Predict the structure.
Amino acid sequence: MDFTLLFIQTINGLQLGLLLFLVASGLTLVFGILDFVNLAHGSIYMLGAFICAALTFFLGNFLLAIAVALPIVAIIGYVIERTIVRSLYTRNHLDQVLGTFGLILVLDTLAHLIWGPAGISVPLPQWLNGRVEVVEGVVIPTYRLLIIATGGAVALGLLWLVNYTRLGMLIRAGASNRPMVSALGIDIQLLFGLVFALGAVLAGLAGMLISPITEASIGMGGEIIITAFVVIIIGGIGSIKGAFIAAIIVGLIDTLGRSFLDTIFKLVMSTEAAESSAPAISAMLIYILMATILAFRPQGLFPPKVR
Amino acid sequence: MDRKQMITLAVMAALLILPPLFIWTGYAFYLDLATRLVILAIAAVSLNLLLGYGGMASFGHAAFIGIGAYAVGIPAYHNTYGEFELVASYNGFFQIFLAVAITALFALITGIICLRTKGVYFIMITMAFAQMVFYLFISLEVYGGDDGLVIDTRSEFPLLNLDNPLHLYFFSFISLAAAMLIVRTIARSQFGMVLKGAMGNEERMIALGYNTYAYKLTAYVISGAMCGYAGALLGNFTTFISPEMMGWTRSGELMFMVILGGAGSTIGPVIGSGLFVLVEELLSSFTIYWHLPFGLMLILVVLLFRGGLLGLISGNSKSGGH
Amino acid sequence: MDSLLTISGLTKSFGGVHATNDVNLEVAKNQLHAIIGPNGAGKTTLISQLSGTLRPDAGRITFEGRDITATPAYKRAGLGITRSFQITSLLSAMSVIENVALAVQARNKHSFRFVRAAHKISYLRDEAMRALEKVGLAHRAGENTAGLSHGEHRQMEIALALATNARLMLLDEPMAGLGPTESEKMIEILQGLKSTHTILLIEHDMDAVFALADQISVLVYGKIIATGTPDEIRSNVAVRHAYLGEE
């Protein structure tokens, strides 16, 4: 058993999990508070990556680019909410899914129009491009640690926001009793706009963070959205705590599965069988996990209390 | 004969007469378009059984199309290149049987899990299962993985030569007519009444004594198998079979076909597929960025036309989704 | 006394509130047993446990000698129990007769029949019409359910219950929202069913209750405080105090 590899892949799994959490938390927040299913969430993730990539070249500094790109993504999110999302609130979830499906086509093509069909690779500043020796003999790229730190910080930030601030209280109240919140004189429209923008920022940030590793590309939105759905289904749609735990689990299982499934299989079957079946099964692993959890808990692990 | 029946007759007549005309007048390209339209219409008809009569918005139907296509591709591949004697075959009956049987089994297993959920959960879970199959086939390097599989021999049937585009077209057209008849019959049968009742008010149906889960699961399997059949035809038509066929976005397109034309009617999905394919062709001939106006159109359709186009034509205000 | 339905020690709580608090009840065959009580007493919760949509926390429900406490909801209709809903629950997209025909169709072991068109099956149509005639809606058979009045919808609820050929009918406030003439009509319909059906009736309308009931139970805060004939209940001090006095 190669413990170095195990440790490194665990770190990678953790990183993937935290990135998934960034995307999933926005998705579940919007669904939990606004009762809105946003299929185009993945496209916002993609736009974040592209805008940051473009700004990195324009400003010459990756971190500065993120700082400028985040408010831009927030504005884009707010605009989308005001225009399309708002007209779909009263509609059933299927209409919302179909409407945002159309939105994906629009946003993806816009990206194609603006930045062309090829992806953009984002260069990292020198100091982020290095490696760190975490434990004796185990070397991890600095950037991955940054992602983990950022993801963790955002998770803590969201926890604080939702549980300890006035805005968080409004968010939780809005989720459980919309008419009451309106009756209190709070501008629900504004609240919803802000929440949607927050969701967009979270997705955009994730896209920005991943782009130096995988490059900003048009297909990235479509890939991440289904995984994000799997995460919130497992975690319980509408629950941030659920999204966090599920994201970590999914990130770890997916990463460790791809690395070690053939090793595990070789314990119980022939080398040949293990090597031919492992790639296929590891590709399906998180879905099998989802199906198993749903078999016992159709509402997910931590479904929020219904209003 | 009411308006809906007249429209049905008109559309089917057009589909029967025009394509041979295309060949005889030299516009073979339009025959290709018509074939694709008809095959996708079968898939849309199968989804309509589930959505229009059962209220189940499955975003996983692309998986059935893909599995059906590979059920043609994989046997053909092995027959050409050897190995896996058990499935190696060009025989059309065998391939179709494989397509229908495997998709039915897949529908049963995933349906058992999916149908324990409702609404948006159901939509997301069906999407996830389709994506799972997509990744599965990408990981199967032996069948081309990401690059897909090309077959040089179409399904072999007695008396038919599927390499002849007209044969392939009429085979598909008759399949479509059969599919429409099957769905129509089921919808009006006792089973169909229970399904429609469960769509309208499930609590009431349970109180009357119906195990609605069992009925919905049955509809899900029938729908999946029929869609698998469409996939087998599609594989034959394109001869290029790839995981792209089962990406979840394909399911979205299928859903739009059903809703555009009017869910819950026999001819609706056919009109929807026709519109979809034609608009796609038209727009893509103007610009490579045709997904932009296309996406805008889809958004507009959702915002404005709630009953589907057929609903508009026949004056119905049936809700297009549940 | 021939007891069709026996409820013993039934308890159901929602977060500390006892919606059903150790309820004991017996319903005799072909009797109309009414349950009255102030709003929020837990009447609908009780019916839901009898129909199977809610699982009790404790206690037993016995029907025709058989313990059905854990039987799933959809199976209870097959055993001979049917319920009507306080808030009208019909298939509004279908016609009146299609609704009732589905109730008739449910009598069969299963409906996995895919070929014959349902509307062509005469036995389904005839039985549905019979139920509709009993509630006076036969003339509206072909019309779309959504177009009927509230009173007619309440009549449809009874028709559905009848059409299942159930031996025990759980009726949850059939008179809800009915005006005076409609109420009289409903009382007439229920009178007509009394001797041939066993009915557990939840109602607010006191005139109906005292006119129809063979036995009355009074439910207050989830507990049965009295059971007896209409006269016994009318003269019961505790009942007057807890319920009738509050009117």
